[in-house]
Amino acid sequence: MSRPAILDPLFRSLRSSKGVGPQLSALLARFFGAPEGQDAIALDLLMHMPSGFVDRRRMDGVANTYHGHISTLKLHIDRHLPPPRGKPHVPHRVMAHDETGDIQLVFFRAQGGWVERALPVGETRFVSGEVGFFNGEKQITHPDYIVEPEKFETLPLVEPVYPLTHGLSAKVLVKLTRQILDTVPELPEWVPEARRGPWPGFREAMARVHLPQNPADAELGGAARTRLAYDEYLAGQLALLLVRSELVAPRGVARVFTGAITERVAAALPFSLTAGQQAALEDIRRDLAAPERMSRLLQGDVGSGKTVVALMTMAAMAESGAQSALMAPTELLAAQHYKTLKPLCERAGLGIVLLTGKQKAAERRAALEDLASGATSIAVGTHALFQSGVAFRDLGLTVVDEQHRFGVHQRLALSEKGRHTDLLVMTATPIPRTLVLTHFGDMAVSILREKPAGRQPIDTAVLPIGEYERVVARLRARIDEGAQAFWVCPLVEESETLDVVSAEDRFAELQAVFGAEVALVHGRMSGAAKQAVMADFAAGRTRILVATTVIEVGVDVPNASIMIIEHAERFGLAQLHQLRGRVGRGAKRSACLLLFKTPLSETAEARLETIKSTEDGFVIAERDLELRGQGDVLGTRQSGMPGYRLAVPDVHSYLLEWAHEDAIEALARNPGLAGAEGEAMRVLLHLFRKDLAIPLIRAG
Ligand code: ADP
Ligand code: MG
Q1: Distance between Cα 447 and ligand 2 center (Å)
Q2: Which fold has domain 458-614?
Q3: Cβ of 530 less than 6 Å from ligand 1
Q4: Rounded mean pLDDT of the chain?
Q5: Domain topology for 260-448
Q6: In three state form, how does the secondary structure of 258-326 look?
Q7: Which residues have C-beta within 8 Å of that of residue 223, sequence separation ≥ 6?
């Protein structure tokens, strides 16, 4: 859907902003989670909300400030007291006063005479900073702002404070944000008149939040921030309703199952289904037998056996004469699924093909022919399954294996073909009910709680990276006993290149000890190279796999019983849980070593403690929500949990109800979203990146 031109300035790459070179541009792309190979855009910056503010409005003179106050003072500069020669540790002191009293300004290691230039004797300056006491004298050490009287306007009396990342300074971020604010267009109003009350328009709200004039502008409960939170909820609710209206549309076919193929598949399985798997299958069969379209979420921790449920479902579809598509998030995972399912399908006489972007032309052509003729019942692949050129004879079911990248966005990416089928979504993150509602709409949920029998608990240990030598020695012993290990390398925030370098360094170090037994896989490798490395590891030809998390470590290697995660303190809880779940799949007892670097932040320590103490994904998910509630900015992205950027659920959740009602009302009144109101809603959907929902708007 083409984007309204009015939004163009907000979708411009930050690379085109003043002061953004390649390095900063890469940092911003990473920080804002831009898709691989793409830049961050102006909108990312606009949506990056301050986490708080500094109030500098206390301006009532030296006599009225006390220890710990942030004050802004209009000072007359009296005298400089630079450090004596050869004593660089003594601070440079500046004596100053206003009509109420005296104060000193203190600078450590001030070189090059800049203090003298910034605070010329005999002149007046506005100075803002935290007031302290030393030897009974009032002083400000390293003021935050020193401003000439005629430039008082540039001193932010209410100063927003932003979440930052290593390498990104507040100064740079603030400057860029101001630049962007100047380009924000006046947008049509999408908030219904009756709801608006004292709320400013979108543009004005953004200006207030980023350039607050008073605390009410900056506060979470203030009109500006409230409006923006509502906007975000409204966009989400509109998108969900549009998707839902598609999903529940009657399919008109009540599936009938003979049981013949599912029985053969069950017989081909080397195990019997758990009670949980059976219950999930019953839910699914009931859905499929009803005339409405199925829309079901299958939640189950890593290793809980979702793939078999998908296979049995696809076998049932084949019995009713329809085809199924299994969509994985990466080519690697698609290949993995195919490899697991193919032998079972063959034994059950069920046709299955793999479709990837990188296949040989002849292979692909054969697969496409079999799908078009109906000779094949199951297609496994990535979203490429739904690209043009792929024709199914009768596609009846789409299974989406979302791992952790779930959300309505994925559902929307299915395109026409996929959306009209029954839908089974599998996710490995146990999702609390409230999140299911906001992010999945009204999907029905089946849960696999127990793990297949025979699973051994995983011994999890947390160690400082200083123990590296001992870890390697122990690893050597375990490898000699026939074990295999994953070694996951740190996520370096600055750049993906550095990620790879750190993995390459670790790889080289381990190679010195383990020689050809070690292999390396990372996101910069070609798909074919990755698959070759994975295949070697799965076949046991290599014993240790060093990997970055850029690739999904979503592979099933039952013999791998050791998971080592370096810089574990940098990972989110869900990610740690997911990584650990890669071991503990075989008969051997498994171990997970979390190596961390000191000092640990409080939340990082809490995360590691949680992972160490439990393997229950639901407990971990709840704890994750709690911890991220404390404002771990990167947590949202790292853990893969869907997150709001403007709305803060603890404060704004009442607005979700309002947005829900308003979205229902708007679509009921104006299903085609016609006219000025519809135009505004479309702008809103684009603004919050829900534009994939736009094609779902019914023709008016
Ligand atoms: P996930 O839910 O993470 O996708 P998988 O479907 O990959 O889990 O299953 C993990 C492992 O458990 C696989 O090796 C699979 O063969 C095995 N498995 C699945 N169901 C059972 C069962 N009922 N009994 C024993 N093993 C099972
Ligand atoms: Mg899986």
Answers
A1: 14
A2: Rossmann fold (3.40.50)
A3: no
A4: 86
A5: Rossmann fold (3.40.50)
A6: CCHHHHHHHHHCCCCCCHHHHHHHHHHHHHHHCCECCEEEEEECCCCCHHHHHHHHHHHHHHCCCEEEE
A7: 198, 199, 200, 205, 208, 216
Instruction: Provide the residue ranges of all domains of the chain, joining segments of one domain with +.
Output: 5-53+162-219, 57-155, 260-448, 458-614
Asked whether 276 lines ligand 1 (CB < 6 A), one says no
| pLDDT tens string 333-357 | 888 899 999 999 999 999 999 998 7
Residues in the chain, how many?
700
In the β-sheet with 352-355, what is the strand arrangement from edge to edge?
352-355, 378-381, 323-327, 395-403, 422-427, 295-300, 444-448
User: What is the whole-number distance in angstroms between the Cα of residue 490 and the centre of ligand 1?
Assistant: 28
Q: Which ligand is nearest to the CA of 298?
A: 1
Same-fold call for 57-155 versus 260-448: no
Least confident of 48-52, 106-110, 568-572: 568-572
C-beta 11 within 6 A of ligand 1 = no
Q: How far apart are CA 145 and CA 158, in angstroms?
A: 13
CATH architecture of 57-155: Beta Barrel (2.40)
With the most atoms of ligand 1 within 8 angstroms of its CB, the residue from 265, 269, 271, 338 to mutate is 271
Residues 6+ positions from 273 with CB-CB distance below 8 Å: 266, 281, 305, 308, 312
